[in-house]
Amino acid sequence: NAGVTQTPKFQVLKTGQSMTLQCAQDMNHNSMYWYRQDPGMGLRLIYYSASEGTTDKGEVPNGYNVSRLNKREFSLRLESAAPSQTSVYFCASSADGFSTDTQYFGPGTRLTVL
Amino acid sequence: DAKTTQPPSMDCAEGRAANLPCNHSTISGNEYVYWYRQIHSQGPQYIIHGLKNNETNEMASLIITEDRKSSTLILPHATLRDTAVYYCIVRVAFDRGSTLGRLYFGRGTQLTVWP
Fold first, then answer.
1. Does the beta carbon of B59 lie under 8 angstroms from any beta carbon of chain A?
2. Cβ atoms within 10 A of the Cβ of A106, count?
3. How many Cβ atoms from other residues are within 10 Å of residue A24's Cβ?
4. CB B4, CB B89: distance < 8 Å
5. How far apart, in whole angstroms, are the C-alpha atoms of residue B34 and residue A105?
6. Which of A59, B31, B73, B82 sits a CA distance of 20 to 30 A from B62?
């Protein structure tokens, strides 16, 4: 039982390049989330997926797209990377997203955009 | 739009209790208080949550004031491995009437446990 896994762990991009961050969970959770964390800051929600087949914007969705590929996997895509997207990206999942629900986080992807 | 206020840093001697305060004066009646911690840029780790009553689990205790405007996380016997950033979070609903709640992270408290 690996919990939430993320790939890659580290990535360096040039401005304008595209990439997809992968996230998978093996806890049979319905809800999944993408956050970003900038230095010295708390996490900010980019997108979330309440259940398979649905996605919605969070606080900071601009410049990102997401795909809920199936119940296990939720990917985050940067179509044209910008230096402002340099950050650590965390994926999380929870059983059903309700207010009493615990979110479990992956280890993060450290992205640098030059 | 800060939901919670925490001191930026605290320290504690190993083996002593660590008491981390949090103010959430604008909390609504159906909003939960969550605590997470983040050790050295790893993914945040869930600690405990509560609505009105005090809560205890194997990691910590959560004391919520009667008016729910503040709370305290207690680590009863802090160890060096408890050094981390601790986030007090009010779980807010995505939309009015929605039961789907998102975590609103602030900057947290850097707890340093010293030998």
1. no
2. 24
3. 20
4. yes
5. 14
6. A59
Placement of tokens 């762990």 in the chain:
A9
Characterise B58 by phi-psi region: left (phi > 0), alpha (psi -120 to 50), beta (else). Answer: alpha
- Which of the residue ranges A16-30, A44-58, A87-101, B7-21 would you say has the lowest mean pLDDT? A87-101
pLDDT, tens digit, 9 for 90 and up, residues A12-29: 999 999 999 999 999 999
Q: Does B25 touch chain A (CB under 8 A)?
A: no
HSE, CB side, 13 Å, CA atoms: give it for residue B62.
27
Closest Cβ–Cβ partner in A40, A48, A102 for B102: A48
Residue of chain A whose Cα is closest to the Cα of B30: A99
- Which residue in chain B has the smallest CA separation from A33? B102
DSSP at B44: -
What sign does the CA torsion over B33, B4, A91, A107 have? Answer: negative
